[in-house]
Amino acid sequence: MPRYSINETRINQTMQELGELGDSPEGMLRVAYSPEDIAGRDYAIKMMQEAGLETHIDTAGNIIGRRPGSDDSLPAIAMGSHTDTVPKGGKYDGALGVMAAIEVIRTLEEQGHNTRHPLEVIDFTNEEGTRFHRWLVGSRSMSGLLEQEDLDAVDDDGLSLGPCLADIGGDISRIEEAVRKPGELAAYFELHIEQGPYLDRSGTPIGVVTGITGRAVFEVEIEGKANHAGTTPMSTRRDALVSASKLVLAIQKMAAEQEICRVSTVGSIKAVPNAVNVIPGSASIGLEFRDTDMEALASAEQELQRITDQAVIDDAVDIDVIRHRFTTSVPITPDMQAMVAEAAENCGFEWESLPSGAGHDAQAVANIAPVAMIFVPSLDGISHSKEEYSTPQACANGAQVLLELLLLADDRF
In sequence order, what are the residues at sequence separation of 6 or more whose Cβ sits closer than 8 angstroms to the Cβ of residue 15? Predict the structure, then answer.
């Protein structure tokens, strides 16, 4: 049995109240640095303060609530996630991790339990990366992983990051002050919806995350020859869009049939001049590979180069493969996985091990502290959509395991 029980009604009430901020018929619109995001952040601060946390905003815009421990010489144990959303997203992605962490603190306060370690609840800014096309901005800032191109980024309207950080209480001129050194945090725990179908299909209430996926992003530019659609014989065409289409199918097969990597996706495609009566003279596709094994991503890159080299020969086109970001996968150590499993068992829940197919703040924080992640089921595996849903019971189960995990870590670290 768990040592203390979280308040199921309260955790789900806070999820509902936060979910009303930025809601629309199309889904959540709490995009980073927007008025809706600021409203969500203000709500998180209010909940932290009501739980007795001392709050501040660091220079990267991260909201940090702190509870002293009985031995403040010990490093803090942190919990959290993010409250920003993708455009037309869901109410659970990120939000559950922040609200559940606050609920853990509230439960400890009500029980009069003072932990040995100081505790921190963190609401990281701009996890999703929709704004400025730079993701994990808050957690990478804290982990010392921010790059100059992050600081120089502009959004689709040409607005720079600095004024947006100022809007939420950050300061880009002092952003390096947000960096936490290795050893400052004893551990970081993140509760999250799975965003995939496996727990929902199996009926298992808790997922023990084995690792966070790596991600390789590419753009492929294809140059053929534009010509008249009615007068150019099929045998002499250099149709860039036809070549792109073949590549789309080949890239899909790399994961679905060849199993070179866990998943492969072509998410964007463009044709020029994009006219029905003109053979496309150029085309481009944007794609990504994901796997927890970086060697698998390297193999996928090699296969991508092979199939594009073959397309140059077969289709008489020119192809340029542009390598964009590679995000390193983060394995979660066996001892941290074991502690999550023990916490789940102490709460009376079955669990199963599974990797995370999505990225999370935990993968950045892993550069400065040990991390662990807890998953709860997502209905039908849907996420980044207004249809995203985890049941009230699932949310409460996850918060309960998070509390037990925290207490185990406080005893042992």
Answer: 91, 92, 95, 96, 99, 395
What is the C-alpha separation between 190 and 401, in angstroms, rounded? 11
Residues 6+ apart with CB under 8 A from 49: 55, 65
Residue 53 structure tokens: 């946390």
Closest CA to 303 of 258, 337, 340: 258
Task: State phi, psi for 84 to the nearest 5 degrees.
Answer: -80, 160
Give the Å distances, CA to CA, from 267 to 203, 213, 288, 410.
Answer: 30, 18, 8, 43
> Token pair of 334, please?
């066996």
81 burial class (0-12, 13-18, 19+ CB within 10 angstroms)?
Answer: buried
| First-to-last C-alpha distance (Å) of the chain | 22
Residues 6+ apart with CB under 8 A from 395: 11, 12, 15, 92, 96, 100, 376
How far is residue 8's CA from residue 20's CA, in Å, rounded to a whole number?
19
The angle that helices 392-412 and 334-346 make with each other, rounded to 10 degrees, is: 120
Distance (Å, rounded) from C-alpha 236 to C-alpha 239?
A: 9
As beta bridge partners, residue 230 has: none
SS3 197: coil
- Torsion angle (degrees, nearest 10) of CA 377, 382, 388, 392: -20
Going by C-beta distance under 8 Å and a sequence separation of 6 or more, which residues neighbour residue 313? none
Which residues fall within 8 angstroms of residue 210, CB to CB, at 6 or more apart? 292, 331, 332, 337, 353, 354, 355
Residues 6 or more apart whose CB falls under 8 angstroms from that of 255 comprise 261, 262, 263, 264, 289
| Side-chain-facing half-sphere of 120: CA atoms under 13 Å | 22
Task: State the average pLDDT over residues 136-160.
Answer: 92
pLDDT of residue 368: 97
Closest CA to 214 of 301, 290, 135: 290
pLDDT tens digit sequence for 10-57: 999 999 999 999 999 999 999 999 999 999 999 999 999 999 999 999
CA 272-274-275 angle, 5° bins = 130
pTM of the prediction? 0.91
